[in-house]
Amino acid sequence: MILFFISMMIMFFFIALVILILNMLISSKLLKNREKMSPFECGFDPISKSRMPFSIQFFLISLIFLIFDIEITLLIPLVLLMHTFNKMPMLLSLLFLIILIFGLLIEYLEMSIDWKI
């Protein structure tokens, strides 16, 4: 019985070794030029300059989207908690909303979200 398991293990090892060698032979790349070996960077030419100008408005829009997306995911379970009429979750959600609105007000007063540029 033990001899059978040992022979099966050796057979599986050799099958895996043959598959590995076949994979290496089939997938060998013959032509290695600069463009084929360079990483693909979302459609941009990776050989050109690496620092391209980046719009800060796009960054602000994505940041505001993430903040309010997280806000929604945190406030949705409160709909289920409204049926229990607990005051503590309601007060915490109100505090959370006040902090977010206060942060948005600060950004507005600093003119951080001025889109006229």
UniProtKB/TrEMBL annotation:
It is found in: Membrane; Mitochondrion membrane. Its EC number is 7.1.1.2. It catalyses: a ubiquinone + NADH + 5 H(+)(in) = a ubiquinol + NAD(+) + 4 H(+)(out). It is a multi-pass membrane protein. It holds the Pfam family Oxidored_q4. Keywords: Electron transport, Membrane, Mitochondrion, NAD, Respiratory chain, Translocase, Transmembrane, Transmembrane helix, Transport, Ubiquinone. One of its GO terms (molecular function) is NADH dehydrogenase (ubiquinone) activity. One of its GO terms (cellular component) is NADH dehydrogenase complex. The chain crosses the membrane at residues 6-26, 58-82, 88-109. InterPro entries: NADH_UbQ/plastoQ_OxRdtase_su3, NDAH_ubi_oxred_su3_sf. Belongs to the complex I subunit 3 family. Core subunit of the mitochondrial membrane respiratory chain NADH dehydrogenase (Complex I) which catalyzes electron transfer from NADH through the respiratory chain, using ubiquinone as an electron acceptor. Essential for the catalytic activity of complex I. This is NADH-ubiquinone oxidoreductase chain 3. It comes from Camponotus atrox.
